[in-house]
Amino acid sequence: MLSITEGRGLQRKLQLLMKEYETAYTSYSRHSSQIVSLRGWTITLLLAYFGLLQAGGSKEFTLVIVIPAVLILGGFFVLEALEKLYAKLNVDNVLEIQQHFAQGTDEEFDRWVEAYEFRDHRIRRLERRDKARLLLHVLGGFQMLLWYSFLGALFFGMLVAVRR
Predict the structure, then answer these.
(1) How far apart are CA 82 and CA 148, in angstroms?
(2) Residue 110 to residue 17: CA distance in whole angstroms
(3) CA 55 to CA 136: how far, in whole Å?
(4) In Å, what is the CA distance from 34 to each residue of 12, 20, 26, 69, 151?
(5) Burial of 72 (C-beta count, 10 Å sphere; 0-12/13-18/19+)
(6) Among 46, 63, 84, 94, which is most exposed with the fewest C-beta within 10 angstroms?
(7) Distances in Å between the alpha carbon of 24 and those of 70, 85, 95, 100, 154?
(8) Mind listing the pLDDT tens digit for each residue in 99-134?
(9) For 132, how many CA atoms within 13 A lie in the half-sphere containing its CB?
(10) Is the whole model's pTM more than 0.85, yes or no?
């Protein structure tokens, strides 16, 4: 077997693999910052909606008042879940590449590089049930559920308090 320093095919694939590593890491960072931005917009829109309700002056508490808030929270929950899903796929890819760079012989590394399937190809091959399993894993994250439960409780608590 050729070592990494020999064989043009392996060298080219190694260069592409390094680019994939950089791209996955950059993408992971971008998704993380987008999650923070989504949370900021969730708060902004909930406060704007609360202000709109206050400006209206009505003291009624009806389903029509609740539905937009639930849609705001639910919509941002889904957007954040998708961002977290893509971030998870990227971080898993980064960790896999790091693991192989850190261990094994040159021959094992060469075999791994030769057999490596790039992230986008793997994602395309995922079946719906695997994508659903990953999404459920992300949705079940304690931090995300806690964040949106807190926002919902805070918003509806404020709404109830001012409607009395």
Answers:
(1) 15
(2) 12
(3) 39
(4) 33, 21, 12, 21, 18
(5) buried
(6) 63
(7) 33, 13, 10, 15, 36
(8) 888 877 888 888 888 888 888 888 888 888 988 888
(9) 3
(10) no
